[in-house]
Amino acid sequence: MQNGMETAKYTRGRSREGELPKGRSLESRNTAAPLAAAPEMASRRAWLEDFRHMLSSEAIDFERLRTRCFQGCPDGEGIRATCWKILLGYLPPDTSSWEAVLESKRALYHQLVKETIINPHEDEESDSGEVVDHPLNPNPESSWNRFFVDNQVLLQIDHDTRRLYPDLSFFQQPTPYPRASYSAGMEALKKRVERSSLPSQRVGTTRMGIINMKSTAKYSSLEKYYLPLKEGEEAHWEVVERILFVHAKCNKGIGYVQVLIAQC
């Protein structure tokens, strides 16, 4: 009897399948989700507009920007990249000086690239045509010796950057701003440690005397999805490779560790 009363109370509190609660129409039920999403969309627009306003000011409020970024930063319109530059001290709070600062920083980076990436062929001959350096030179200060030492670090960097986020096609796509010196004939970093292999086949003979030849070449499952780059182009992962290589050369005490690739 008690179980029957409890069941009756339970079923009385529920509406039958397909019924709507009192005071609610079918139209109100269908529009509930869009109405609930409207305030969220409005707050997101206000959040994005707040970042636009902060970054367009003549003087950036550093503390306010840091607090807002701690709560989340927009991905689009280059806002995230600009915020990182400000928070890391790459850009000053005075927005009127940004253009001059960026030009100066880029010139400094290009100078670092020129100084750190060694081209040993430049020092092979003197002005008189005499051979002064060669790959077998035992002098530790020779350009060729430093070139081979650098390649040991570069080989590790190249191995990590080539497989950087393989699920994202971004890093395999060409960058709109390739290094200008590549078009002038300077060898790309990836060419210094690129490996080449001769094609080979496995030969087998069946009982019928039929010879089967099977290729032993192995390719990455992602290679077929990426088109080869044209002459003078470079992928985004090559830009990351160059940044990490320059950092390793300028910071001998740190060198290169794999955790640095996540910060790029």
UniProtKB/TrEMBL annotation:
Residues 74-264 form the Rab-GAP TBC domain. InterPro entries: Rab-GAP-TBC_dom, Rab-GAP_TBC_sf. GO terms for biological process: intracellular protein transport. Residues 1-39 are annotated as: Disordered. GO terms for molecular function: GTPase activator activity. PROSITE patterns: TBC_RABGAP (PS50086). Residues 14-27 have a biased composition (Basic and acidic residues). Gene3D superfamilies: Ypt/Rab-GAP domain of gyp1p, domain 1 (1.10.10.750). This is TBC1 domain family member 13.
